[in-house]
Task: inverse folding
């Protein structure tokens, strides 16, 4: 710890915070996370203040040196703050969401200091145009197509009694009964006093370097809000040419075509960690970010993640990020693509080996049954395969051990590896990709995907055998001639039972049963479950895994 480091605590009124904000006292470090709060979050914050509930302290940081890597302009709420060179800025480390909400809603958009602040009117109107209803005594957002009633007042008006009196004279007279006006005045005065006198504590970290600031931030939040690893890495590696948070933002934007834009950032960081020779849980963040090659390897890894996701999507029909059985599968595949030079394409043999590895690790609960030490060995074996494609990428801790599946899942739920495996099998079977080969689809040809139902059954009771994968491609007539806004998700797909669809596990027996008696759902679903299980068993056994059927559903097949 450096000798200049000093930590102070202060308590200031909300009004004082607003004055400092309008004077440009607060800045945002470029590694700070974006504003994420919803309108409901903002209303809840203001409701807490109205009731004099604590909203937590704010963590500020004054750097040891004026780092050139920080942004020249910072955005807090809808306002951009011009960085005054003659002042030493104070950076917001923790409390950014709260202060953005307070400053954005309580700063008068007609009276702010234009020498210091620049207002994004569109963003203010969308997120920070908060009202207080003096009749219902609650915070509200107006619908975009409606005007406010006279007693629905913008919250920033309550910060200044003169502003409120002017508002009241303009809106109350001739619009509100006199007996109501006094009630509204009393309520407004009370709320204005609460706003102006509400105290917020702060912890000020003065003259700390970036490592010390991050360490303090980590400890303060250890039992509170989860901190993503890329936030820490962004803070420790922040340079004008490299900001990890921005690099990940760009990657997630590029993954939209594969429906992987909601991939968790910590998983991306685990891919990065595993790209330095050992599996991710054997590294500490502090060790990696100090490496001279951290930025270079990270950039390559982010490109490899995109290639791995493309492989999952086009070769294995993992059509969104929720369908991948194990995050570790993406991590291992990323390491594989990292080993390729430039735009080098994997060999057909490698593709087939990787697809078989994926299905084995999915159906065997591979990353669940193995301990951390065995996962390290699995990672080593996979790296051996990368060096020599003739090596089996699957790790077996016992030569006589044979993997087996879990039971056929009653429902397809995205929290179950077994259910995801079944879902992926059904999707691949529907596109005749149930045999391991080099066959793939083009991501750009797929318009939409969903798991529909044959029969309308409540979701909580909807069995696996009632579900059917629906993949709509751009070259389908329905897509070509139906406007996008008129294509609606169907409640069921009973129309599929009018003819045989073997790729969807609908055979002639099911079609005939439905034709003669449309009320007998159970026999149809039982027949379809048998068809699914038979096909799944054949596939699973073809990759050397025992199919579990303890209920002997397939005893005579």
Result:
């Amino acid at each position: 710890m450096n000798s200049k480091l000093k930590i102070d605590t202060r308590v200031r009124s909300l009004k004082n915070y607003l004055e400092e904000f309008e004077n440009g006292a607060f800045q945002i470090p470029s590694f700070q996370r974006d504003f994420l709060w919803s309108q409901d979050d903002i209303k809840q914050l203001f409701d807490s203040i109205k009731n004099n509930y604590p909203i937590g302290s704010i963590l500020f940081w004054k750097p040891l040196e004026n780092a050139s890597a920080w942004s020249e302009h910072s955005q807090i709420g809808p306002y951009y703050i011009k960085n005054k060179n003659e002042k030493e800025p104070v950076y917001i480390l923790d409390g950014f969401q709260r202060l953005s909400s307070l400053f954005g809603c309580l700063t008068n958009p007609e009276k702010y200091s234009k020498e210091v602040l620049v207002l994004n009117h569109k963003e203010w109107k969308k997120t920070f145009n908060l009202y207080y209803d003096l009749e219902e005594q609650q915070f509200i957002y107006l619908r975009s197509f409606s005007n406010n009633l006279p007693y629905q007042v913008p919250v920033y008006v309550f910060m200044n009694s003169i502003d409120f009196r002017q508002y009241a004279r303009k809106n109350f007279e001739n619009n509100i009964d006199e007996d109501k006006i006094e009630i509204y005045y009393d309520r407004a005065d009370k709320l204005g006093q609460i706003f102006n006198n509400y105290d917020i504590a702060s912890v000020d970290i003065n003259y700390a370097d970036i490592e010390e600031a991050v360490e303090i931030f980590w400890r303060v939040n250890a039992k509170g809000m989860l901190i993503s690893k890329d936030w820490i890495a962004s803070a420790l590696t922040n340079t004008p040419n490299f900001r990890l948070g921005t690099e990940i933002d760009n990657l997630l934007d590029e993954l939209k075509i594969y429906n992987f834009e909601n991939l968790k950032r910590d998983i991306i960081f685990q891919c990065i960690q595993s790209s330095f020779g050992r599996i991710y849980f054997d590294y500490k963040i502090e060790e990696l970010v100090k490496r001279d090659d951290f930025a270079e390897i990270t950039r390559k890894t982010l490109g490899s993640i995109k290639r791995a996701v493309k492989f999952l999507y086009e070769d294995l029909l993992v059509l969104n990020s929720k369908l991948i059985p194990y995050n570790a599968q993406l991590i291992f595949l990323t390491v594989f693509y990292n080993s390729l030079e430039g735009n080098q394409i994997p060999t057909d043999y490698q593709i087939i080996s990787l697809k078989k590895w994926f299905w084995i690790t999915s159906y065997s609960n591979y990353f669940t049954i193995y301990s951390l030490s065995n996962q390290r060995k699995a990672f080593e074996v996979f790296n051996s395969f990368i060096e020599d494609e003739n090596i089996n990428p699957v790790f077996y801790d016992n030569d006589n051990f044979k993997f087996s599946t879990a039971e056929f899942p009653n429902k397809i739920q995205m929290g179950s590896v077994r259910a995801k495996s079944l879902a992926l099998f059904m999707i691949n079977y529907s596109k005749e990709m149930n045999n391991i080969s080099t066959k793939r689809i083009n991501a750009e040809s797929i318009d939409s995907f969903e798991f529909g139902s044959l029969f309308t059954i409540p979701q909580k009771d909807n069995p696996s055998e009632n579900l059917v994968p629906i993949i709509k491609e751009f070259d389908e007539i329905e897509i070509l001639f139906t406007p996008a806004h008129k294509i609606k998700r169907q409640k069921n797909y009973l129309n599929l039972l009018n003819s045989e669809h073997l790729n969807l596990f609908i055979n002639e027996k099911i079609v005939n049963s439905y034709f003669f008696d449309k009320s007998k759902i159970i026999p149809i679903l039982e027949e379809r479950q048998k068809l699914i299980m038979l096909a799944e068993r054949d596939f699973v056994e073809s990759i050397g895994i025992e199919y579990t059927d303890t209920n002997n559903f397939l005893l005579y097949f």
In short: Confidence is low (pLDDT under 50) at residues 476-488. The longest strand covers residues 199-208. Residues 294-316 form the longest helix (23 residues).
